[in-house]
Design brief:
alpha/beta, pyruvate-formate lyase- activating enzyme, 3 domains, 10-stranded mixed sheet, 3-stranded parallel sheet, globular
């Protein structure tokens, strides 16, 4: 098994399964009646999801289902089943090949609970936003019910919930480290990240009769094996189960180092497991391709052993070490396999999947989607669908590496972009097929607005890079930042017949945008509908360094260009900055300074976001372990302050909404404790007034309080719901409720 092999079979290069003769279905069937209308006696694959079925490529199960249909398989869907029994899991019968289980486009815990661990009152992926239509830890529950319904069936789990829980992980809602989702769900195999390659290959091999327990060589998959299992005798184990000994995981090779005998040492090796490769100076200089090939071959037959679940659950330093090791093995070009013991068995993770080519990505997004919800929902409104129905996804992945974000762990850092022609065809199809289209395209984007076709300038450098971010602490000199292809796409999109305006709704990476003033001019002149979303996240270096976000200098440069080009276009337009409260590494003083910056710049945020620790994110590791996994982890390594106390989390959130009278009593008390009572008063340079409007603060919670109104200052203006008081702006929705992620789950 050469798990680092870079050559993959084309996604649409398989011979179609015999059932392709049935042709594409108007909608993938959700009932026996629909199956019979299609002439099916059974399904080859049954997909189980916690979301409503919307046949659109922004929704994971539709994308995966249509892809498998294009391979010739009969695919049925069970949406939001009643998990209290196995009855709903039997309604389409037993699948011929497997159940494909997912929680949906979101992690079920993020979907159901806020950052304060309170139940959400709605679910954007459910008809009419109705809550409680999926269980906690939905992947585990659904997989167990599938096994109960048909004990002999193969169970394949995937989606972002499975991806982020593929190894032992900290679970914020239970405040403990949980096992990998594999042993809990009893699934046969887990597919993580972008699932297309592994899923198509797995399905064809199962259709040919290969047992699922013997399929162990697919990139992007994880499975349970006996302790000590190796694919073959020529594999080596690098033991990284202790701190301070990660070997080449943290020490980069020095290609110019020479040993005493005149040979070049290509890798420093490790005190445990992997040995250094030594080549003669003559062979390494004359035949560099052979040298690189030998290194790749060695890495492809090396597995890194992480600390066992039983150890990381009780040892925060080991947890941080495991997290750092895991993230350093995330580049498909050089990642090694990983293994982690859970009791008497190992969870084995193959390296991440090879990204799709532009042609393959085009093929995935141009499958015959109905582009609307399943007819069984009638006139019900599905909020997630309403949000993206007039938007088009143009790329996937993100090389920003923000520590609080899950995109990197799921989609990876390598940008996968569609062709210009494919995007334009989808806009035309949306224009012609999507009910209610008025000529306004709400977004051309993805995880970010402006990483379309951006990549490393050298494929060899990209394949060997182990940086956690291409843009922090500075933009890498090897990263291409040319926005010309995106500018071309914008110009052609807005000239299509029937298109009146193309807006950009995805968050903009402004530190990249300032490298291309022409792009900013194009964007500001034609594609901003009054407000543009950007995400500084904070103003202070302490939290920014733990987020891996740029300083405010890049924001200031971008704002200057934004304002200049808005004036030149004769438009009144404003930036919508997003900020996070209570992120690891943030102090009360940091939040105070941010609040003062907001007031100085006349921002009055409506909704704000409090840090939500999602499974496997680096910021979550900081929150749980109070160590910094961005640096080498040891027993004496950097301590990271975390905001865990409920009152302090509320205080940090209150600083972001300094203008809300309900927060003034808490802020007054905090400012006095911080020795900053000088910021209480009615002057322009003071943060909050000394007076309290009637019915607010403690009085607003039913407690008596005297109200003294200032004779010189009235209550602050409040932004209308969903609309900021100019020139302020609302912040993002609660964590997990941003734009729908448009990628396979």
């Amino acid at each position: 098994m050469d798990s680092n092999q870079q050559v993959s079979r084309p996604l649409f290069g398989h011979k179609k399964f015999w059932a392709h003769r049935f042709g594409p279905a108007p909608f993938l069937p959700m009932s026996r009646k629909e199956m019979e209308a299609l002439g099916w006696d059974s399904c080859d694959i049954i997909l189980v999801t916690g979301d409503a079925y919307i046949d659109h490529p922004s929704f994971g199960m539709a994308l995966v289902g249509r892809l498998l249909e294009a391979q010739g398989f009969r695919v049925g869907i069970i949406c939001q089943p009643d998990w209290n029994s196995a009855a709903d899991f039997k309604k389409l019968g037993k699948p011929n090949l497997y159940f494909g289980v997912t929680a949906g486009n979101m992690d079920s815990m993020v979907n159901r609970y806020t950052s304060d661990r309170k139940s959400r009152s709605d679910d954007a992926y459910t008809p009419n936003g109705e809550p409680n239509k999926r269980p906690d830890h939905a992947v585990t529950v659904y997989a167990q019910r599938c096994r109960e319904a048909f004990p002999g069936s193969n169970i394949v789990i995937g989606s972002i919930e499975a991806s982020l829980r593929r190894i032992a992980h900290y679970d914020y809602w239970s405040d403990k480290v949980r096992r990998s989702v594999l042993p809990d769900s009893k699934a046969d195999i887990l597919i993580f990240g972008n699932a297309e390659r592994a899923l198509v290959e797995l399905t064809h091999r199962l259709a040919k009769g290969e047992p699922i327990k013997e399929i162990r060589d697919l990139r992007g998959t994880a499975f349970m094996v006996p302790i000590g299992w190796l694919p073959s005798d020529d594999w080596e184990v690098m033991d990284s189960s202790e701190v301070d000994t990660p070997g080449p995981l943290v020490k980069h090779a020095d290609p110019y180092a020479m040993d005493a005998g005149g040979s070049r040492i290509e890798d420093s090796g490790s005190s445990k497991g992997e040995q250094p490769l030594i080549f003669s100076a003559k062979s390494s200089i004359l035949d560099p391709q052979s040298l690189r090939a030998a290194r790749r071959a060695q890495r492809a037959r090396t597995v890194v052993r992480l600390p066992a679940y039983e150890r990381v659950k009780d040892d925060q330093v080991l947890y941080a070490h495991a997290s750092r090791t895991f993230h350093l093995e995330s580049n498909p070009g050089n990642a090694r396999a990983l293994v982690q013991a859970h009791g008497e068995r190992d969870v084995w993770l193959n390296p991440p999947p090879i990204p799709l080519t532009t042609e393959e990505l085009d093929g995935v997004y141009e499958l015959p989607y109905a582009r609307r919800p399943h007819p069984s929902y009638g006139e019900a409104k599905i909020p997630a669908w309403e949000m993206i129905r007039f938007s088009v996804n143009i790329m996937r992945g993100c090389f920003g590496g923000c520590t609080f974000c899950s995109i990197t762990e799921h989609e990876g850092r390598i940008i996968q972009s569609r062709s210009e022609e494919s995007v334009l065809r989808e806009i035309e199809e949306m224009r012609d097929k999507t009910p209610g289209f008025t000529g306004i395209v709400s977004d051309l984007g993805g995880p970010t607005a402006n990483m379309y076709h951006l990549k490393c300038k050298d494929e060899k450098i990209e394949a060997s890079c182990r940086r956690l971010s291409c843009v922090y602490p500075d933009i890498c000199e090897n990263l291409g930042t040319d926005h010309s292809k995106l500018i071309s796409l914008y110009r052609k999109a807005r000239t299509l017949k029937g298109v009146k305006k193309v807006l950009i709704g995805s968050g903009l990476r402004y530190d990249l945008a300032v490298r291309s003033p022409e792009y900013i001019k194009e964007l500001v002149t034609h594609h901003v509908g009054g407000y543009l979303k950007i995400a500084p996240e904070h103003t202070e270096e302490g939290p920014l360094s733990k987020m891996m976000k740029p300083g405010m200098g890049a924001y200031d440069r971008f704002k200057q260009l934004f304002d200049r080009f808005s004036r030149e276009a004769g438009k009144e337009q404003y930036l919508i900055p997003y900020f996070i409260a209570a992120h690891p590494g943030t102090t009360d003083e940091d939040m105070l300074n941010l609040a003062l910056w907001l007031k100085k710049n006349n921002f009055r945020l409506d909704q704000v976001q409090t840090f939500l620790p999602t499974p496997m994110a680096l910021a979550t590791t900081m929150y749980h372990s109070e160590r910094n996994p961005l640096k080498k982890v040891s027993r004496s390594s950097e301590h990271v302050g975390t905001v865990r106390n409920g009152r302090q989390r509320k205080l940090h959130k209150a600083f972001l909404r300094y203008h809300d009278p309900a927060n003034w009593p808490m802020l007054r008390e905090a400012l006095k404790e911080m020795g900053r009572a000088d910021l209480i008063g009615n002057g322009k340079k003071q943060l909050i007034p000394a007076w309290q409007p009637a019915g607010t603060g403690e009085a607003g919670r039913g407690q008596p309080a005297k109200t003294v109104k200032s004779p010189t200052a009235g209550p602050p203006r409040r932004a209308a719901a969903g609309r900021p008081a100019r020139p302020g702006a609302p912040s993002r929705p609660p964590a997990g409720r941003g734009p729908v992620a448009r990628k396979p789950r």
